[in-house]
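In keeping with the milestone schedule agreed at the kick-off meeting, the structural modelling team has produced records for the first pair of proteins. Each record is given below as a sequence line and a structure-token line. The laboratory manager (R.T.) confirmed that both were archived under the project's standard naming scheme.
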Amino acid sequence: MRIYLTPILKESKSPTQNPYIKDLINALENNGHTIVNKNRPSNIGLFDILFYLNKVDAIYFNWIEDLVATRLGILQTIYVYLSCFIFKLFNKKIIWTLHNKISHSKDYLFLKMINTYMLLNYSDLVITHSSDGLEFSKQFLKDESNNIHFIHHPIHNNLGRYQDIQVEKKYDILIWGAISPYKNVDVFLEYLEKKDLLNKYNICILGKISNKILEDKIMKYKSEKIKIINKFVDDNLLEKYINISKIILFTYSPGNTFASGSLMYSLSYGSNIIGPNVGSFKDLEDENLIHTFNNFHHLIKVINIAFSEKISENKKLLEFIENNNWDYFGKKISKYIKEKE
């Protein structure tokens, strides 16, 4: 099948691109599909699809819930509504991965909800990476649908990279990734301060803070016990800090989280992980692979439990990785695509 995949961005516009798209392209191509725009990033957003209508069999959307906040976002969003009908008219399939509920931002919420409604009801195939995604979809569907499928977010196997290296665990807790308001890092630090726990743990916060207001809130907690590295982080540096940390903590707000590539990246190294009791975090706890928390009071108890465990020795983790790698995902999604042909 010939597929137009979005978003594909120029590296100059997004130097820290989500590796998900690159892995997705490889998974689809390894299963016989052609990504027609793989080497042609669009300068005009989704309007670029018009030039491929007679060259593709399917359009594959990702993170469409954030489209309205991009350049010409409102026009592009209206175009998505129209394109659902255009694609059907030209007998093109619509594929969509539902990554988040609506969006991490509440701006243009009504338009984002319409986007979600349109794509859930007009897509030929919808993939979600958490069981919560299935439940969320029901409130938007006009009728029951068998077009929506839950597949765990694909994962690489990095378990052996540090298997024979014994290092001192310098940090009790590592919080990494782009630091945005919805990730609640500042709220977590405020909680520790309120409970007089700021000096209890050696904490490293690793990632670029998204805005000045949030930066001011977080940086005031920098100390001998709390290290803050406010910059974009490459894989080599990230691997180093994962290896010298006892626990990786995700303090995300539970509101919009379905799946997390950062969660799967961390799990791929056999890390001890704690995250909110939602989405793929909850699914992985059901697999006995990570811990979750319901609130920060509960989190402190969970942290103390997780200190005594070593997930990398869990045979269930290796089995999970083998059964949910990108090759598996490519085969699974290709099976669903073939059923729609």
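The second protein of the pair:
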Amino acid sequence: MESQINVWNAAHKRELGHKKEVHEEVKPLPELFKVSGVKKILDLGCGAGRHLVYFSQRGFTMSGLDFAAEAIRQSQEWLAEQGLSAELICNDMIRLPWADDIFDAVISIQSLEHNELSSIQKIIGEVHRVLRDGSFFFAVVKKYPPRKDWKKGKFTELDSHLYAPTEGPEKGIVHYFFTEGELHDMLTGFTINRIEEDKKQRHYCFLAQKVVTGA
């Protein structure tokens, strides 16, 4: 874990974390969330804060978590520039530092994939724990298999479905590539509203809701 933290901090100090555009698949979510009564959202793997800013500007109460201190620093800076605020915590995803049943939605945009399979399963369990019954889980994750042109083909397979670039700004950062079947298996305890490919067919985007207890 320490080596991954170092790699991510270095990446954010270069160009990866600097004010990226909002992910295209995220843009319709505020409307859905507002009509569904969502108020409090956790951005899991918030990076430099692009979605924290986007949702905060639209009136949502935001919390953000990232294990790279540099990402948290950049998020704080960006929010302050916009006159916004959010709860920001530097921590790993496997042990979320919140009580049960407190969020109306959790989003995780191209961040859940930066873990090994066993960790991903634990993280999804934590997401389930901190969500209220009926609340939303939206994520964008890598689609298996990686295309030959991913990172210009300069990557290595570390384990089944787990890869890392061998050069460039993401050198050494692990990427797990999901099948649709795996997502169905992992999301027990959730009702899956949809699993779709993004426009470039390189990611899966899924929207699920925590099953209501006793339903």
